[in-house]
Specification:
mainly alpha; Arc Repressor Mutant, subunit A; Tetracycline Repressor, domain 2; 10 helices
Length: about 200
């Protein structure tokens, strides 16, 4: 019985998160109420509060789910690389950007919602904290990757790894925004290759 209850809880949470994406994508974070999310999910008014204490908690759950899924997809893609490719910082960086592009295209509505989160971070402390933590982790991981590439001679010895990591993150965010404004206007694979060549 407890396993059935857990399965039901997980399924209900997933349904609420899908409903939240639809509402946030349509009306934005501030324009959406918990009651609207519950209605979209097909559950009783206010029932969403049983699973999430607030709209902010739902948004943070979406943010975490997106990040976890993307990390899993990146790890799966890296596992398919040849040993030589896995040992190349350029190939790894290229793979990360390509997988991110595929994820953005596959989860377009969620991506649009989470991009709004970058703006919300200026006003909602819990979201700001989550975004800052995620960005700091991404910055550290990319810097370490690029430093490895510098040590291996893939980039010049005087290459500023931290600055390049910042530029990669900013470029990925810019590509996301561009893709949402004009889907199909560029190739994520070509962008990934260009970023890895820098």
């Amino acid at each position: 019985m407890p396993k059935l209850l857990e399965t039901t809880r997980v399924a209900r949470e997933a349904r609420i998160l899908r409903a939240a994406v639809a509402c946030f994508a349509r009306q934005g974070y501030y324009g959406t109420t918990m009651e609207e999310i519950a209605a979209e999910a097909g559950i009783a008014k206010g029932a969403a509060y049983v699973y999430f204490p607030s709209k902010e908690a739902i948004f943070l759950a979406l943010y975490d789910t997106w990040g976890c899924t993307l990390r899993e997809e990146i790890l799966a893609a890296l596992a398919t690389l040849t040993p030589a490719e896995r040992n190349s910082a350029r190939w790894v960086l290229r793979t990360i950007v390509e997988v991110t592009g595929r994820h953005v295209q596959k989860e377009a509505a969620t991506c649009r919602v989470l991009m709004e989160g970058r703006s919300l971070a200026a006003y909602v402390p819990a979201i700001a904290e989550r975004v800052a933590t995620e960005q700091a982790q991404a910055q550290a991981q990319l810097t370490t990757l690029i430093q490895g590439g510098v040590a291996a001679g893939e980039w010049p010895a005087d290459f500023d790894a931290a600055l390049h990591a910042t530029m990669v993150r900013a470029t990925i965010h810019g590509l996301m925004a561009t893709w949402h404004m004009a889907p199909g206007s560029f190739s994520w694979e070509a962008a990934a290759a260009a970023l890895a060549r820098r």
